């Protein structure tokens, strides 16, 4: 295990009706709130009205609405402008990863001279300060509610890139599973695929002796496998929604990734797909993950894949580890099929025309060619894309 510095300071208020604490929570930070949200699901679910009912009288609310899935730089800039104009004290992000990520970029952008794209693209530009963020999560997926990461799309340059800062980790996150009852089927499976992918990305890593991280990841993977079919069949099943919600936060708050070296494999490949084609992040991951697994299965990795099959899918370990490893990869693929995920790129509107360009960008924008679990060249990425057609 490598040295690490674990920092997960988000005050997490989990469970039914935790929103009652919202006035007290926001009061700590001030009276002018930027209410950030997406395309309107919070209005349809009644959450928007509830927020006004709870804080509308005592607070000045400024709205940043219409935050897109795969949030755009233009929207971040709009949010920064609103915060400066109205001297906003705190951002209340209500929604999923897209709304929370956009809010993080706005929070940091307020104190940055110049375009927020600077601190997203240039590691030398440091974030010095950020507005406090409070979130109300409405979909179990990214873990953004409990981490300092954010991913923003620049439509002009066709780039979707992430940044990370401790200063934008949400101060408080309200996690009420009932708010995810209205998440549609497609987004529910995308969210689960994203959680699962975060765990896979951390699990398949070359660092030895990380039983704690791996044991937690295995438990969370089993949780996602167990509860996703229930959430899909019975969207208002509290137990399923609650377990998926908590799994989402724990999968990417450092618990399963700290103490390991290297970089993720499928996320950099997927971010190019969403940058070029604006597809749903979790769906792109589900399509790529089994193809990536097949591609990197070799004598060095076979033991790990067999262990994954044994611990996550309860497979008996065969003397021929390849048999167990291949069965585990097939079960991963079949799981996504069973959930209903469209498992090829053409089904989400991607043909072969830009695969080469996206493969080059995936390598250019990340360290997958040197630091991934199995290093991936442009040719490797292209092969994984092609196998996903
Ligand atoms: O915009 P609204 O109307 O709210 O609808 C959203 C959106 O259309 C809808 N939705 C969310 N909650 C709902 C609901 N519909 C009905 N009822 C509800 N309760 O679902 C759609 C997707 O929302 P979005 O926020 O885009 O989903 P998600 O949480 O999956 O976020 C995806 C974004 O996060 C990034 C992804 O790349 C993508 O841009 N990621 C962020 C990470 C992080 N910050 O740590 C890590 C991830 O790996 C990921 O890259
Ligand atoms: Zn993800």
UniProtKB/TrEMBL annotation:
Keywords: Oxidoreductase. SUPFAM superfamilies: Dehydroquinate synthase-like. InterPro entries: ADH_Fe/GldA, ADH_Fe_C, ADH_Fe_CS, BDH-like. Residues 188-388 form the Fe-containing alcohol dehydrogenase-like C-terminal domain. GO terms for molecular function: alcohol dehydrogenase (NADP+) activity; butanol dehydrogenase (NAD+) activity; metal ion binding; methylglyoxal reductase (NADPH) (acetol producing) activity. It holds the Pfam family Fe-ADH. Residues 9-177 form the Alcohol dehydrogenase iron-type/glycerol dehydrogenase GldA domain. GO terms for cellular component: cytosol. It comes from the Bacteria. PANTHER family: ALCOHOL DEHYDROGENASE YQHD. This is Butanol dehydrogenase. It comes from Vagococcus teuberi.
